[in-house]
């Protein structure tokens, strides 16, 4: 009896090891065939039940082999598109990837019996271009309820990226396992992307895993990664490219050690990269060139003594005199050409701006960034190709930092276009070294609205409204108004669904004022019912609908910038109106004081007052805030739609 107790104790103490053995596999069970919904995502059209990868070097050929196995359950008609799979094979100058051992089966039930359809050769299609051959597998007899299993082995000599592994897909994944065997000859930088945690992250060493003849051999580092219950990646508003957040493992070859003792350094340090940038004809050789920009600025700018005023004048000069051609120009920049042509790409325009600042004694640096659609630049190791844009970092008296982009005439000094707001970049100091810096825009983008109402002779509520908008909140207004004033007015009218705009006037001047200010006169279209007016005081809607609808979001909510909204309303009651009923006041805060919404109203014999304030204090909210943000936005929508003041005509 004691022996059995010790055995049970051993099994329980090592249960985590045994539990990893009993994992999903390619066998299809009756339960998988009969299931009609995935309980962890009831809206899923399909689910990957089992996803397996194994990457290793072949002992005979030293080519990298990747074994792939996958099992998919089709849950509804929308999931039928997963009855086809595309496998890209890379074609290089001297080598190409190959595929073998393709196997596939489709399992379903007919009259209660399990039926299996297998993949024939005529259901394997091939397409080819200069860089890829696409292998397309069209699985047979796929229906709602089918379970698909398929596997293949890919062979490649392209090992710089080893073999990345995507745990997260566009549909949920129940179990994903990736195994990698890397010879000691190859050293990789390994990066885990995304916020989802690994359930298993193990490593070991296999001695003598590969032989190279004459007694030479290599040990292999063995890695095993497992992730379970992985939610689908579903795109939603307020985000950047999906590649920033899809949970995956990535590799970058760093060092190759030859059997003869030679060591080839593949990836570089930032010190190496800084040296390359310094001699780069499209970058380093375009920086700090006083002679190149001599006499470009007029004397009415160079003679300004106030530093901030002078910096703004230089920025405006570039905006006014050089037109952006909508290209980045990372590998084609010439300030000399820009000065001659009067227009050019983003690198040319912003490097000209940096040179003009430098020539006037300012501390200004080019800052390499990756735009929102391009994804986050990796910080694990230097990858110059991650950067596709440049802006300027300007310091004034070591007290204030400004980030500038002079490509868009509607941007005010210190504003960046939304596509540049991608959290951080690499500042390049030609005399010292480059360094990472957050794109920290301290100022809020604001919307301030003040409305003054009264009852007119036709028993309608009419108002004088002043709107002042700053920062990124103002960009669309500035551009639309400057491009076509008539179209802008029509667009503006749609922003006030319960009112008619009778007059409109813009008070701010130029294309890029720091605040875009306008005045409108409007008439409220809510009719009097008997002697009462049911008045919604939200003449302006901050959000037309709740942008957050997912059951679960695994990636951050990225607004790009901090925002603040302030709305005040005054209604003159006089002797004509009386307030019968007011909405309840409301205050709601996001966790950690990361935002708030406040609504209140009050009335006396002379005046009705309404106050609304909304603040989003972070440009980026981590995924843990998602449920709170969803409730927060729902509260704003509810206030906008259901806040009613009951007025009575005297």
TrEMBL record:
Family matches, as InterPro entries: DUF3857
Domain DUF3857: residue ranges: 67-194
Name of the protein in its database record: DUF3857 domain-containing protein
């Amino acid at each position: 009896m004691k022996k059995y107790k010790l055995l049970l104790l051993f099994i329980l103490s090592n249960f985590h090891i045994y539990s990893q053995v009993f994992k999903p596999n390619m066998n299809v069970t009756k339960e998988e065939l009969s299931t009609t919904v995935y309980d962890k995502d009831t809206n899923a059209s399909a689910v990957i039940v089992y996803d397996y990868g194994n990457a290793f070097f072949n002992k005979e050929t030293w080519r990298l082999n990747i074994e792939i196995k996958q099992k998919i359950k089709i849950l509804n008609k929308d999931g039928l598109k997963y009855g086809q799979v595309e496998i890209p094979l890379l074609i290089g100058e001297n080598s190409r990837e190959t595929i073998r051992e393709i196997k596939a089966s489709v399992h379903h039930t007919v009259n209660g019996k399990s039926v299996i359809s297998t993949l024939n050769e005529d259901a394997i299609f091939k397409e080819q271009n200069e860089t890829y051959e696409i292998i397309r597998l069209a699985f047979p007899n796929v229906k709602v309820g089918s379970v698909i299993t398929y596997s293949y082995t890919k062979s490649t000599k392209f090992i710089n990226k080893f073999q990345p592994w995507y745990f997260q897909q566009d549909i949920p994944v129940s179990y994903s396992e990736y195994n990698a065997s890397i010879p000691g000859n190859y050293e990789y930088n390994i990066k885990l992307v995304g916020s989802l945690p690994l359930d298993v992250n193990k490593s070991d060493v296999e001695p003598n895993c590969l032989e190279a003849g004459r007694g030479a051999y290599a040990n292999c580092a063995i890695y095993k990664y497992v992730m379970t219950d992985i939610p689908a990646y579903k795109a939603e508003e307020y985000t950047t490219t999906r590649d920033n957040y899809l949970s995956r493992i990535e590799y970058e070859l760093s060092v190759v050690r030859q059997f003869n003792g030679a060591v080839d350094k593949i990836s570089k340090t930032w010190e190496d990269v800084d040296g390359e940038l310094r001699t780069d004809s499209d970058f380093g050789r375009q920086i700090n060139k006083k002679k190149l920009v001599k006499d470009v600025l007029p004397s009415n700018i160079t003679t300004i003594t106030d530093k901030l005023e002078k910096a703004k004048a230089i920025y405006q000069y570039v905006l006014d005199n050089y037109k952006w051609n909508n290209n980045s120009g990372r590998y084609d920049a010439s300030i000399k050409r820009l000065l001659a042509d009067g227009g050019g790409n983003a690198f040319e325009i912003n490097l000209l701006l940096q040179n003009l600042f430098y020539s006037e004694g300012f501390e200004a640096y080019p800052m390499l960034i990756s735009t929102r659609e391009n994804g986050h630049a990796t910080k694990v190791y230097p990858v110059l190709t991650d950067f596709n844009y440049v802006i300027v970092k300007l310091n004034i008296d070591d007290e204030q930092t400004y980030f500038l982009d002079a490509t868009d005439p509607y941007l005010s000094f210190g504003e960046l276009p939304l596509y540049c707001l991608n959290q951080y970049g690499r500042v390049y100091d030609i005399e010292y070294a480059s360094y990472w810096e957050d794109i920290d825009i301290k100022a809020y983008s604001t919307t301030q609205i003040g409305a003054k109402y009264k009852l007119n002779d036709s028993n309608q509520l009419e108002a004088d409204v002043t709107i002042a908008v700053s920062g990124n909140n103002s960009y669309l207004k500035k551009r639309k108004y400057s491009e076509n004033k008539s179209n802008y007015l029509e667009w503006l009218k749609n922003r006030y669904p319960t009112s008619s705009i009778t007059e409109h006037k813009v008070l701010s001047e130029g294309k890029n004022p720091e605040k875009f200010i306008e005045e409108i006169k409007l008439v409220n279209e809510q009719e009097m019912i008997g002697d009462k007016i049911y008045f919604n005081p939200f003449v302006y809607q901050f959000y037309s609908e709740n942008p957050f609808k997912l059951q679960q979001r695994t990636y951050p909510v990225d607004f790009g910038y901090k925002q603040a909204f302030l709305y005040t309303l005054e209604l003159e009651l006089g002797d004509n109106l009386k307030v019968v009923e007011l909405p309840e006041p409301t205050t709601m805060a996001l966790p950690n004081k990361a935002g708030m919404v406040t609504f209140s109203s009050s009335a006396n014999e002379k005046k009705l007052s309404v106050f609304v304030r909304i603040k989003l204090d972070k440009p980026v909210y981590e995924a843990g805030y998602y449920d709170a943000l969803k409730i927060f936005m729902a509260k704003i929508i509810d206030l906008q739609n259901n806040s009613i003041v009951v007025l009575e005509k005297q």
